[in-house]
Amino acid sequence: MSEKFIPIFEQTPASKIWDFPLHLPPSSGQLFDRLHRPLKDLRISVTDRCNFRCTYCMPKEVFNTQFQYLPHSSLLSFEEIVRIAKAFIAHGVTKIRLTGGEPLLRKNIEELIRMLSQLRCANGEPLDLTLTTNGALLGRKAQALKDAGLNRITVSLDALDDAIFKQMNDVDFPVSEVLDSINQAHAVGFKSIKINMVVKAGVNEQEILPMARYFKQTPHTLRFIEFMDVGSSNGWRMDDVISSAEIRQRLTKAGLALSPLEAQNRSDTASRWRHADGAEVGFISSVTQAFCHDCSRARISTEGKLYTCLFASEGYDLRTLLREQNEQAEQIARIEYAIASIWQQRSDRYSEIRGSAQAVAKSKIEMSYIGG
Length: 372
Ligand code: SF4
Fold this sequence. Notes:
Blueprint: E1 41-45, H1 78-90, E2 95-99, H2 109-117, E3 128-133, H3 138-148, E4 152-156, H4 162-169, H5 175-187, E5 194-199, H6 208-216, E6 221-226, H7 244-253, E7 258-260, E8 271-275, E9 280-284, E10 297-300, E11 305-307, E12 316-317, H8 319-322, H9 328-344, H10 350-353, H11 357-360, H12 367-370
Parallel strand pairs: 1-2, 1-10, 2-3, 3-4, 4-5, 5-6, 6-9
Antiparallel strand pairs: 7-8, 8-9, 10-11, 11-12
Bound molecules: iron/sulfur cluster.
Iron/sulfur cluster (SF4) is lined by residues 291-292, 295, 297, 309-311, 348-351.
């Protein structure tokens, strides 16, 4: 059997990245990249571990007992995450999403949420603080997350049929426990939970209708996601993709016709649609309708590397700057300078050039390492 190469630990020596000027400029308030896209959203991966082995994200044959996860000392501490978050906020970030791996596996995650919830955006408003989870631990943590100041939750759920769901999560985890978790989160005050369903042809496409019918009766918003070529280990093929247009056609045929809704924010990943009774549905069409032109997202990996695209092959080491022995003000100024110099050089638009020679040549970082 041939060995798979997983480009998790690519090396970018910090010394090669920045040449700090003697006098560091003040933070920008708002950064724009080379395609004039503002920096607005930050996704922070808090762990590279997960309790599921979803076949499209952390397939068992790669992420097995031999797999080397990051040692604890490599992970950013909560204090370091907060310092990084402050630097991003100084450049215009207003929304932070915690991801993983499975973020609820990070010990005392509610303490990190409490610390982040005390930060304020440049205009004095609280951050929009959200988290994506597979739902396995959500029920028992929901109250603590709410009390800590988490605003919103997204739950990944790919099927309602137990056999299909277990086959996809590959750890025999039942659907009923995820649904219970969603109910418990709602009961403690998370009002509209987003439910993300990755649709893969021949695997869970028969779940499109049951999922649509089930979540239409709830206050939550189901979002269909086109199966993407994230990372290098999920064996993606275009034939595995069921387009958002095709999903809408199937819904219409089954008597669930949708009509489009206005976007709330330009940078939203999902297009919004509604059922005849008003229930909302979202579509994330990264493959067939790329939305790179409005992408305002930066990502921080579990060990503190900055990535400017979900499909990036190279990250920039901010952890080294965090662990330098500088005065805190000097350290923050250096991190802000580094973020600015990286974002202003950014020209990523992988989904728009997918399939081109330029895109095919890249070896991509795994989603479990930088979050979805
Ligand atoms: S492919 Fe990269 S640039 Fe395009 S929307 Fe996704 S993360 Fe943003």
